Amino acid sequence: MKKYFFALILITLSVFANAQIQLSDSAKISLMTTSPWSGAVYAVYGHTAIFVKDDFTGINAVFNYGYFDKSKPNFLYHYIRGETDYILGVVPLDAFLQEYREKGVEVVEQEQPEVAEKPAAKASFLSPLVRKMLDEHQLDPDQIQGTGAGGRITKQDVEAYLASPKKESPSVPESKTEVKEKPVQPAKAAPAITTCA
Q: Where are the beta strands (DSSP E) in the chain?
């Protein structure tokens, strides 16, 4: 009977392990940080979990890698030594918030700010030879048009850039501003400083 029970558990776990969900582009991932509370030794510094909300897939859950069995023998001893077996707990957001609300603990959601995607710098796609050539000639890779795969700068691109006529930077006309000298005033004598002993 035990064999069948364990076989059923293994089959169930393998099904869930293979059932990965692809998040949509509109999914929101943020940190849920709780303030410290004095109700337990493991909560002295607070806690952080990951919140995932995706309306497209229906996920609205907190992934909390901080669950453990407090009833194990010598729990506190093992916790302090860092020998606690943690497991990942996944709970709905409402249940996560309710747990900390009941303890009187503040929960703060820390969202990642929206960042405009920036194209990768050309310098990250340079071969060692091209990087050496750029360094030797003190060239900026952003000034060179790459003709390699994906716009990558090749040795030939650097050589062509070095062979091309250099563009002169526009000269700034000299200023014809007159400088009038002011007469120098004699400095006033500083007051004497006295010290009391």
A: 28-34, 47-54, 59-67, 87-92, 107-111
In a 3-state reduction of DSSP, which class is residue 23? coil
21: pLDDT strictly greater than 60: yes
Residues 6+ apart with CB under 8 A from 22: 57
Q: Which domains does the chain have, with CATH numbers?
A: 24-111 (no CATH), 122-162 (4.10.320.10)
pLDDT at 68: 75
Contact (Cβ atoms closer than 8 angstroms) between residue 34 and residue 100:
yes
Amino acid 165: pLDDT: 80
The whole-chain average pLDDT of the chain stands at 75
Are residues 124 and 116 in contact, defined by beta-carbon separation less than 8 angstroms?
no
